Amino acid sequence: MSRLSRLRDLLVAKHLDGLLVSDPVNVSYLTGFTGDESALLVTADDSLFITDSRFTTQFHQQVHNSHLVLHQDHLLSAASEHATGTVGFEAEYMTYADFMKLQGPAKWQPTTDLVSGLREVKDDAELANIKQAITIAEAGYKHVLDTIRPGMTEIQVANDLDQFMKSLGASGTSFETIVASGLRSAMPHGMASDKVIEAGDMVTLDWGAVYHGYVSDITRTFVMGHATPELEKIYHVVYEANLATTKQMRAGVLGKTINEFAHHFIDDEGYGEYFGHGTGHGIGMSIHEGPGAWGPYREVPQAVGNVETVEPGIYVPCVGGVRIEDDILITADDPIVLTSQAPPTLVVVPV
Ligand SMILES: [Mn+2]
């Protein structure tokens, strides 16, 4: 069933006469359009694609399931003029200023997770793009291990990795590449800085590639030369936590159950106070998407076709940190780890 048909089924279930889709990622998911500054008004028997004349050619090349409506003023104001009945808008995306621009006879109703809910289950073409985004990112990691040397700054490593992935066909990076070395590795999301990488540093690399609009998201931690026994032990605990948690990731299991499992695992090893974030999140067209970050309140069960990260970590201030993140495909049976297995012991880069 087409994506628009599945959305229309949701509209019937929600007693909506239409939905104004203003999140450009959702517009792209429903229509194939890869530009911006566009909106979609989906009703029971029509789909209006509202944009301006800059995108006329691109519309005709890419969009085959909607009618073009050109506007010259305000995008959402123009779109709203075509809406009648009870029409939903995307509450998580529309700003208050945009909302005040809506006009016409429709009764506007906030909605959440309609299109983004559909996006949670990936089809084969989407999976192929995610897998290629992973292949490119993993080639980038090999490049980093081959080229990183003491004396380089974190920013140099990040820029080199980003450029290498683009040379392999990535359109960009999934997010700003994280390179956190030495004591900075205890910062879970330490952006690459001008810190110089030194012998003995732990290096946490969190990066991803975008391929045909789909992302990968991987974290690896390695050491420059030689690690202390404590950091080797922390690596081992995180590695085992990653493996054990991955085994819990299957259809029907609640996100919060998986999150609790990972936290209990690391708690039992004595590092609970040093694991302060959720255990994973969905990926796809966005770096964080459904079924949602696995906080303690995630009551959403995993479904076949979800692609999610598993990313336990331990960060000890003044000592260092380790995170190991993989991308997992949920099935009815054992999960499929889309990324290559991290090694059971710390990777040592010779210095
Ligand atoms: Mn992640």
UniProtKB/TrEMBL annotation:
Keywords: Hydrolase, Metal-binding
PROSITE patterns named among the record's database cross-references: PROLINE_PEPTIDASE
Domain of life: Bacteria
Domain annotation Creatinase N-terminal: ranges: 3-121
Molecular function GO terms recorded: hydrolase activity; metal ion binding
Pfam families: Creatinase_N (PF01321), Peptidase_M24 (PF00557)
Annotated Peptidase M24 domain residues: 129-332
InterPro entries xrefs: Creatin/AminoP/Spt16_N, Creatinase/aminopeptidase-like, Creatinase_N, Pept_M24, Peptidase_M24B, Peptidase_M24B_aminopep-P_CS
Keyword set includes ATP-binding: no
Protein family membership: Belongs to the peptidase M24B family.
Protein name, as recorded: Xaa-Pro dipeptidase
